[in-house]
Specification:
Elements (H helix, E strand, L loop, with lengths): L1 H27 L13 E10 L6 E11 L2 E9 L6 E10 L2 E10 L2 E11 L3 E4 L4 E6 L1 H21 L11 E8 L4 E7 L4 E10 L5 E6 L1
Antiparallel strand pairs: 1-2, 1-8, 2-3, 3-4, 4-5, 5-6, 6-7, 7-8, 9-10, 10-11, 11-12
Amino acid sequence: MKTFTSILVLVVLGGGLWWWGENNNNNLLGGSGGPAIEEEAQELCFLKFEDSLDSDFEDKYTLRMNLEGQKAAGELRMLPAEKDALIGKFEGAITGNTANIVWSMEGEVGTAQEELVITLGEAEASIPKYSLALPKILCAELNEREAVEKYLWEKIVTLSPIAPALGGNWYVVSAELDLEKNSGTVTYEDGHIQEKRDFTYVLKADGAVESLTIE
């Protein structure tokens, strides 16, 4: 009787250990027998400048895309010099290197939604509908560029070391940046005269512009 009881206890213990091991393995493998794969989120940034054919202004296009699994979201900004700007967020899905998204854009004529295909390559992102190919850039570099440009555009009236002619107001035409040297060249005008001057800038720890000096 004792032998039978001992065998029964061993069987029960063995079965329990087997169940625990299988259950634990399933948890480690994602519960379905396959490996647990955690989709790592990615942030990709793209930037393109083009000289306008009709003026001294520049066309500018930026794309920020966040990828997580098969989801794609971000912002597309199309800022042509001589046409209406289009800016907006987008959401969609990505399969392989092709994202099918819905862009909720806003421009001078109002808001609209548009379906777009974005193809991602190793060095650029292509938007066939607009015949655009945007070179890839580090997101930190894009953040710095946009912070400096925003500061220049908003404060050029007070940053300029000289006053505009005939009581006009300065506005920025274009800016070229050297991120390694925290410097650049800005072209601005008031409708009568144009200035092209070098500048330097200092950033805060959070990436915002602390100061900017036009020479």
